[in-house]
Amino acid sequence: MTITNNQNLPEGIVRAVSTEPHNKSDRELSATQLLKGTKETILERKHWDDLTDDAANRIWAVFGTAVHSVLETEGDNDFTECQFEVPMDNGLKITGKIDNYNMKTGTITDYKTASVYKILVGDFEDWRMQGIIYAWLLANNGFEVSKARFIAILKDHSKSKAKFDSSYPQSPVVIYEFPITMADLAEAKNYIEARLDNYVKYLSKPDDEIPPCTDKERWASETVFAVMKNGNKRAVKNFNNAIEANQMAAEKGAGHYVQERPGVSRKCADYCLCCNYCNFYNSFVKNQTSEE
Q1: CA-CA distance, 290 to 292, in Å (whole number)?
Q2: Do residues 261 and 127 both lie within one domain?
Q3: Is position 219 within any domain?
Q4: What one-character-per-residue DSSP string does 124-165 give?
Q5: Statement to judge: residues 184 and 253 lie in one domain
Q6: Where residue 196 sits, what CATH number does that domain have?
């Protein structure tokens, strides 16, 4: 991957945000790669040397360097930034680097940057899955895990909003944690095996034959059918299906019509490095973005 510097940032920042692929072998997958869509994972691997990204887009990666300095001061019962791996029956290997693990309490800690929006909507499923995968990795290496804890630094936190809105996160640091159960470890095992089966199935296929990422993996919003009135920019009402929308437009009478607003795959254009190699993006998302 080539890291550009279109904003002419200091060279130290460019070096800090430059990165190598998680695993250079096609036979290894990291915990974070398992959480991506299969198509994204395979395309990123196949086209890694041709991918480009700008240093300014990766500025929050510098946060990792600062976190590492903090982790060095953790207690005597902890180990930090240790890589674990588990070989699978199909010849593949699952890997993961744990930010921090407390051997006395059995607690996994991972540091994140996040947006306030993620906290407001309670969108923690990706963190939960990452936590139970890490727990599965540790358990298969002989370590007991009782809890997973994610410490999130909110990049866009506003102190003034927190002061006047009790529903707004009151601190720029939010902790999300949950206990690890045997059921979680079983869920992680089933999830990993299913993802690996899909990965192996499509690894050697041509790019365009790999199914697109799911709506969830693309951060896709639902298509909305808006009942509109001539002359108004705002919808009278939004519906999730065309039948109800058309029924209301007919009831409202002349001057009302239905406008279809296709769902938007937010990850594709802005957060997927290999989108230009993806036929789904080029056929649907890219055209939609241009129209908007």
Answers
A1: 5
A2: no
A3: no
A4: -HHHHHHHHHHHHHHHTTT----EEEEEEEETT--HHHHHH-
A5: no
A6: 3.90.320.10
Q: Which residues contact 202 (CB under 8 A, 6 or more apart)?
A: 38, 39, 42, 209, 210, 211
Spatial separation of the C-alpha atoms in residues 135 and 141, rounded to whole Å: 10
Domain final residue, candidates 183, 209, 235: 209
Average pLDDT over residues 11-29: 79
The pLDDT score that the predictor gives to residue 75 is: 66
pLDDT tens digit sequence for 254-292 = 999 999 888 888 899 888 999 999 999 998 776 665 444
Mean per-residue pLDDT, 92-121? 92
User: Domain check: are 182 and 237 in the same one?
Assistant: no
Q: What phi, psi does 177 have (nearest 5°)?
A: -140, 160
Q: What percent of the chain has pLDDT above 90?
A: 66
DSSP letter assigned to residue 285: I
Do 129 and 229 lie in a common domain?
no
The pLDDT tens digits for 148-161 are 999 999 989 999 99
Average pLDDT of the residues of the chain: 89
Q: Which domain holds residue 261?
A: 224-291
Query: How many whole angstroms separate alpha carbon 143 and alpha carbon 165?
Result: 42
Tell me, yes or no, whether 217 lies in a domain.
no
Q: Is 215 domain-assigned?
A: no
For the chain, the domain total comes to 2
Q: How confident is the model at residue 68 (pLDDT cuts 50, 70, 90)?
A: low
